[in-house]
Amino acid sequence: ERRLADTPYAALTVDAHIEQVRREGHVRATAALWVVGVTPEGYREHLGVWLGPSESEASWAQVFKDLIERGLHGTRYVVSDEHVGLVAALRRYFPEALHQRCQVHYQRNALSKVSSEALQDRTRVGLRDVWDAPSRPEAEGRLSRLITALQPDAPRLAEWLADTAPATLACYALPRDDVRRKLRSTNAVERHHEEVRRRTRVIRIFPHEASLQRLLTALAMEQNDHWRSQRWLVAPTFLPEERPMRRTA
Length: 249
Prior knowledge:
Layout: E1 11-23, E2 26-38, E3 44-52, H1 57-69, E4 77-80, H2 84-93, E5 98-101, H3 103-111, H4 117-131, H5 136-150, H6 155-164, H7 177-182, H8 187-203, E6 205-206, H9 209-227
Parallel strand pairs: 1-4, 1-6, 4-5
Antiparallel strand pairs: 1-2, 2-3
Helix pairs in contact: 1-2, 3-4, 4-5, 5-6
């Protein structure tokens, strides 16, 4: 709940996972909503953890509203999956920030659209080749060739790639390859989720939301203490500075 006004968090990683909580006399799925910010010095910080009945636009809107009221500012880049409610809330509260669709989530979505192992392998290798391109124009060229190659055997997948894959290339706006690699997916949060699930599996069903909130908050604070001792990015550069407009005669 700390104030955030003193530090501009230019980049955010946003993700969620589901836990089971007894609520209103029934066991219900409850979304744990996480936001990780990156400081100008290159350190990661959990900015908070929230609970919602689902990953709806209303749930995520409350998260972003809370962050802004606490003073969050300077956000120019956000990486997340493509959940409809999340994306709608991002567009509402961070309309000027670039949105990077998580490449790890995207690859899972792509592989689920074909059942042939051979086509899955071709898709996996092809997407990796696209995302390893040194520049966006090169990535777009490789993507076009991948779509053409998949069209005869998997036309629906090829059409889906053409419509959606450009959203995974927003990271090329970041000027350095080492920064792009770390901010092209939500892996920074996913690894922490694995540790969280290791703890919550022991409990399985939480008796109420307050008990889940206490555990998740304690784990987030513990993770922050660990992250403070490890610089995640060295001299991070998130986006090129925009030149101020000049009046001409």
